Amino acid sequence: MRARFAPIHVHDVLPSWQLCFLILLFVNVKNVFEQEGFSRQKRGYRNINDIEVNMSDPLFTKQWYLINTGQADGTPGLDLNVAEAWQLGYTGKGVTIAIMDDGIDYLHPDLASNYNADASYDFSSNDPFPFPRYTDDWFNSHGTRCAGEVSAAANNNICGVGVAYNSKVAGIRMLDQPFMTDIIEASSISHMPQVIDIYSASWGPTDDGKTVDGPRELTLQAMADGVNKGRGGKGSIYVWASGDGGSYDDCNCDGYASSMWTISINSAINDGRTALYDESCSSTLASTFSNGRKRNPEAGVATTDLYGNCTLRHSGTSAAAPEAAGVFALALEANPNLTWRDMQHLSVLTSKRNQLHDEVHQWRRNGVGLEFNHLFGYGVLDAGGMVKMAKEWKTVPERFHCVAGSVQEPHKIQSGNKLVLAIDTEACQGKDNFVRYLEHVQAVVTVNASRRGDLNINMTSPMGTKSILLSRRPRDDDSKVGFDKWPFMTTHTWGEDPRGTWVLEVGFQGEEPQRGVLKEWTLMLHGTQSAPYIDQIVRDYQSKLAMSKKEELEEELDEAVERSLKSLLSKNN
């Protein structure tokens, strides 16, 4: 049993030398010395008043996602921790971010000084001037608002401040035409990949809860070329908004957000909850911030607006992706040699749970102890933590791909009975493409159902991590197309050992009975053969587990002793 002692303060009664002499008279006292007081602080907590960031920009104090002091009924300290990165001297200098959108008001006085005209282009009108097309309702303000979040200039008394306020911003106008084409998307994604470092995309297939869509052939090739050849071979960094379909949709049905080549970003609001429009899925890597649920007019994202104006009302995961692009720009300034995969690893390792929470999806730990959430990914990006780790970062080992196994024969699915399938794998051990440490995992599935929206697909790794690959989409009535070799992706098993048994569970959720057929499940593993930092994480996690179990046992013992003492006392009385 652990002894518990309460300190006795008698300094006001006796001088310290007399007190020491008196204590030494006790038989069991071997030594006496006076204790000096010193300070200790809780780690992970910052006093907002200690953050010294002085900006003259009028909206800066309303940019709670940069420094959250509790503005607009928010939670103090719940922000991107950019102040630490700025104080370390990182502001995005030397980094170019392209906003792929409906254009940029590059004449805006808060953007003009950071605008990279040479890296900009208008693929909607085929000219080098991506200025937004005028409409009476300012419908084409989206790109300008996103650009301000990233690169709005600092200390110029105009609007607010960009996350990376010394970075360069390029405009790629490609959204403003009646229909999108594969060639426009591919041209935009591959525009000047040796000049542009980061591409920010706040768009995708329709967020109507019934669409299943993704990049076509030319765009897929452009993205593959970007990560393999962009930035001198280090790889273009694609940041994608996870989607605004809310609980009616699943971002694993969006082939852009769920791509291994993109960093998919979800959002939280200023009190740590999910926004009502946030989609959940296992491919989301991390989160930033968007507007709050409350009707506080200052709970939105403050940024630049069309024609030299400012706004407090930018919102959606559209607002979240550019914030992430800004944080990544800070990391690239700290270490220009970061590859596209380095940026993903840094996002996983430095993102924080902070005070993010959701009523449905709880925080869990994967097999190596990394904490994740089905909505928030690995947590909110931490700019300070990321630049500090980036500065000392060594490029991750070579990436390998392994087809771990496949189930090809048809299996029926019926309401009330889950279809459970298993694949045992050695992860290509003994071959050149052996995968020992996971990054991305894909379950390539072909399945048809009488109602696609009622399908629910879960996958569990050999280390026990359960990923929700597909949740119910109540608006999806499809009964013909289903999913054809669709690559459901999870990042939740990051760092795990893939060897062992993978389990796929397929069933129906909903009031009406449904039926279906799973025709194929192929398991694709992507990762490395060595990753020393993961070994350290595992050791730390196991040590913490052992310590927590020890503390639990000690607490149980204390409680048992206390109960026994109370029982004896009551009997004696």
Protein model, in words:
- The chain is α/β, with parallel strands linked by helices.
- The chain contains nine helices and 20 strands.
- It has two domains: 60-391, Rossmann fold (3-Layer(aba) Sandwich); 400-530, Galactose-binding domain-like (Jelly Rolls, Sandwich), CATH 2.60.120.
- It has helices at 16-24, 82-87, 142-151, 182-189, 217-229, 317-334, 340-350, 383-391, 532-572; strands spanning 96-101, 121-122, 168-173, 198-201, 237-241, 262-268, 286-289, 301-304, 310-314, 364-365, 371-372, 400-407, 411-414, 419-425, 437-449, 455-460, 466-470, 483-490, 500-508, 515-528.
- The strands form five sheets. The chain has a seven-stranded parallel β-sheet with strand order 2-3-1-4-5-6-7, with helices on both faces. Strands 12, 13, 15, 18 and 20 form a five-stranded antiparallel β-sheet that branches. It has a four-stranded antiparallel β-sheet with strand order 14-19-16-17, with no helix packed on it.
- 49% of the residues are buried.
- Residues 1-12 and 38-46 have low confidence and may be disordered.
